[in-house]
Amino acid sequence: MIxxxxxxxxxxxxxxLDWLAQSDEPVLTYDKLTYAGNLNNLASLRNxxxxxxxxxxxxxxxxxxxxxxxxxPRAILHFAAESxxxxxxHGPAAFIATNINGTFSLLEATRAYWQTxxxxxxxxxxxxxxxxxxxxxxxxxxxxxxxxxxxxxxxSPYSASKAxxxxxxxxxxxxxxxxxxxxxCSNNYGPYHFPEKLIPLIIANARAGKDxxxxxxxxxxxxxxxxxxxxxxxxxxxxxxxxxxxxxxxxWNEKTNLSVVHTLCDLLNELQPKSGGSxxxxxxxxxxxxxxxxxxxxxxxKIERELGWKPAETFETGLRKTVAWYLxxxxxxxQVQSGEYQQWVDLQxxxxxxx
Length: 355
Known about the structure:
Blueprint: E1 2-5, H1 10-22, E2 27-31, E3 51-55, H2 61-71, E4 75-78, H3 85-90, H4 93-114, H5 119-124, E5 126-132, H6 157-176, E6 180-185, E7 187-189, H7 198-208, E8 212-215, E9 221-226, H8 227-240, E10 246-249, E11 254-256, H9 257-271, E12 283-286, H10 301-307, H11 315-328, H12 330-336, H13 339-350
Helix pairs in contact: 1-8, 2-4, 4-6, 7-9, 9-11
């Protein structure tokens, strides 16, 4: 059995679904079910005997330790995190509590469990920590992409909290010998993405006839990774990654935010044309967010060289699949756009000045 923390969230749920589509090894999903955790993401597993769901906080070390003792997993995949930069600017305390203190609590419970295993079980065990490229800070237009040796330089409360969690995971390997793995991924997109992030927000707003908000000039650059490609990379790192190592996972797709919005509008114009005009007519440039990193880019050559992984999707194929999924899943979109979500959108965008 494997444990997946945060398995009802965007990337975690995609991982659980992909895992059970390819393996009969059981999964225990552990999730607090905050605003971004959604059991409907795992609805297809409701009667699947290979899947166990437990609602719990990663800061609840006692509950997590009891589950470890009962189920004896061979691996823990740690997806659970507060992950939205804008939310971290408005309320950083939750990011410290979850990403730093929660990861520490998991590591302590895991270390205690791991020490009860026999030597062969200890050697086979893995704690895989899923992190972000944002820990590396920002790049200039001509700078080389982030590699695993790039110095950490986080610029937001979110990225600082993830950097701290990365350091804790590293320390537990070097101090206690815990067999850990860390992956640092670029911007994910795909099905089940909570619509506070750029791509699902633009799709939802476009279809609702609302403004499509673009920060500043929209020329911030991100590398985009289709979520199923990310899941495949994590499976490969779990299978063959070197304990103590970190692996950057990217899609080799550097795009400006504005070009992403334009591409989304053009896909929607094709797949669900609006009556009169183009979805591009709804684009509105708004004042930039504080400390907005200008460019992220991932050098993913290490994971390809050592483990043979590279993305299967191009940005164009992945984005088309993503838009098609949202058009086919109105019920899911409407369910996640709850009162809390609408309050957040109002807080973040309603009173933003035009740029």
